Amino acid sequence: MLLDVVLSPTALDPDEVKGHRVVVVDVLRASTTIATALANGARAIIPATDTGEAGRLAATLDSNASLLGGERDGKPVEGFGAGNSPAEYGPEAVDGKTVVLTTTNGTRALSRAKKGAQVAVGTFVNAQAVADFLREGLDEDQPGTIVCAGWHGRVSLEDALCAGLLLDRVLRPEQAGALADPAKIAYALYQGSRNDIERAIRGTEHARRLHALGLGDDIARCAAVDTLDVLPVQNDGRITAA
Amino acid sequence: MLLDVVLSPTALDPDEVKGHRVVVVDVLRASTTIATALANGARAIIPATDTGEAGRLAATLDSNASLLGGERDGKPVEGFGAGNSPAEYGPEAVDGKTVVLTTTNGTRALSRAKKGAQVAVGTFVNAQAVADFLREGLDEDQPGTIVCAGWHGRVSLEDALCAGLLLDRVLRPEQAGALADPAKIAYALYQGSRNDIERAIRGTEHARRLHALGLGDDIARCAAVDTLDVLPVQNDGRITAA
Prior knowledge:
The structure is a homodimer of 242-residue chains.
Chain A: E1 3-6, E2 21-25, H1 30-39, E3 44-47, H2 51-59, E4 66-72, E5 75-76, H3 91-94, E6 98-102, H4 106-112, E7 118-122, H5 127-139, E8 144-148, H6 157-170, H7 181-193, H8 197-202, H9 205-212, H10 217-223, E9 232-235, E10 238-241
């Protein structure tokens, strides 16, 4: 099977994705924030693995033309201009700017996936753009791997669900039988929840954490399917709209 | 929630299960082989993490009263008296004997889970015995953790499915909403396949590997639910029937 799913990046050997089209999925919220910022005119997103690196990267940029954003365990970081809520990345905040972003799981997953031939960022809001990207690879017999960011090495339901939706859009139903187990799990999970994605996401651990932090409004925003036609792609440590 | 699922032992911090009732699940085939051997009169199973350790342990035992068994990547090991097929662990082979067993994933998962207050071995064939063991803990507010063995750090569908069946037997439906994501995934997976467990297992990667090795007969044996009323429990590195 040409399409694989990694349910948590700790299960990923970085060399495994060489030559693949890779989609990194962190529904709540890095992928959604990145897609939103680019759709709203950000020039580029520079993912940083920790807050120190993010600060150093931001210091090299013109402060009028950049924004330093991110979170740790869902919470804002002191001294940062924005958190990790897509609501903070509207045109007024990001148009024409470079965003340096560090998040608990999403930017780490991007780092582990960077050896892919092409690396895109996907989630529900830009699902069709990402499905088209994977389909284009498959049409040329190029393998695709969907890497779920998860949570501190554990599997996140919302990321697996999004991987399942992408598989559903790219595969013919008769191809699902040949999938490897993690992809099969994602696919089955999506089939069971496809009629109410937002409800399934509201029941996840991560959604419950966001709710407790007063960030419950982000959930509906991150669970909306196909609201943005943008394909964020990562090259040399910068993510731009393709 | 008092009941958790770890979908792959690489995601498990061994200290996490201190004080818990733990069930280690390796449907294909270590759990099924262990349950079968004990049901057929084996005195004890000694799990060994590698073939060298298994050989050394077996050398300390009376050869008439012991059996050295196991596999690597599903294949028999040279010099071993048995592989990892439950069919090889009938009464004629194991009655009254101590079995030293090493398998690719199952015995490693047992090793990672050993700090649990009680550690049992579970699978479909002894599902009710294991569900009763977990339920007994919950009735006393003792947390339970189901550790899926997986395959080289990846999630195996058949183990997740078995974890889902155990949850289904132990939880009231209204409790499922409060589960953590990995447990929710296992539970949802089981709900989607509960009417044909064997068919779901036949579609897994592991079943396809066994089939290719000529071991396809083991699949139905491992997919049978509640055929053995045995609870294998691990104490001080020995597994015996409770």
